[in-house]
Amino acid sequence: MARIFFAGIKHSGKTGMAKLVSAMYGLPCADSDDLILPLIQPMSVREFYKTDGKVAFMEKEAEAVREYISSHDSFIISLGGGACDNSALTDMIRSNNGRIVYLKRPENSMLPVILKHGVPAFLDPDDIEGSFHEVYERRDAMYRKVADLIIDLGPYGDKAEAAALIAGKLKENGYV
């Protein structure tokens, strides 16, 4: 039984890597944002977060993931970038034999990727770089605490290579 949860900073490659690695191992793959959508429709995840706030979003993420894992034995799920703040979610993952894998990317490679999609609600629009630095440092420390495995991806260019690295680490650690 492989219950693997990819975690990391927003736009660190969790979903893309989850799709590639799950295909290598023949595992179902899900993204927690996609799992939340049926619970918050007609809103998007971004709209829900902005209107209902962080706490409501974290509750919905935990509920959506709980529903998914209740009907699947093995899988890879990519979590939202702030999952490290959601103790209800991480506790539930642990109580269901899940393994949290932190896909770590360097801070300086992350902000340009994030900003391609607009300024997210968790950043201060008046101090984007400063607020991102604070969020990155805090979340990095938290992910290091909750992760069962940390994989330093560096500023990868080749996604297939990065996926092979992750797949190898999962196998090496007995997760698949």
CATH topology: Rossmann fold
Top CATH class? Alpha Beta
Q: Residue share in helices?
A: 55-70%
Tell me the strand order in the biggest sheet.
2-3-1-4-5
Q: How many DSSP H or I helices? A: 7
Radius of gyration: 15 Å
The computed structural class is alpha/beta
Order of helices and strands: EHEHHEHEHHEH
Which residues form runs of ≥5 with pLDDT under 50?
Answer: none
Number of structural units classed as domains: 1
What's the CATH H-level homologous superfamily?
A: P-loop containing nucleotide triphosphate hydrolases
**Strand segment tally:** 5
Protein described:
It is a single chain. The protein is α/β, with parallel strands linked by helices. The chain has one domain (3-170): Rossmann fold (3-Layer(aba) Sandwich). It is 55% helix and 12% strand. It contains seven helices and five strands. The chain has helices at 14-25, 32-40, 45-69, 87-95, 107-115, 128-146, 159-172, and strands spanning 3-7, 29-31, 75-78, 99-104, 149-152. A five-stranded parallel sheet has the order 2-3-1-4-5, with helices on both faces. Helix 1 crosses helix 7 (159-172) and helix 3 (45-69) runs parallel beside helix 4. The model has no long low-confidence stretch (mean pLDDT 94).
Please tag this protein with its features:
176 residues, alpha/beta, Rossmann fold, 55% helix
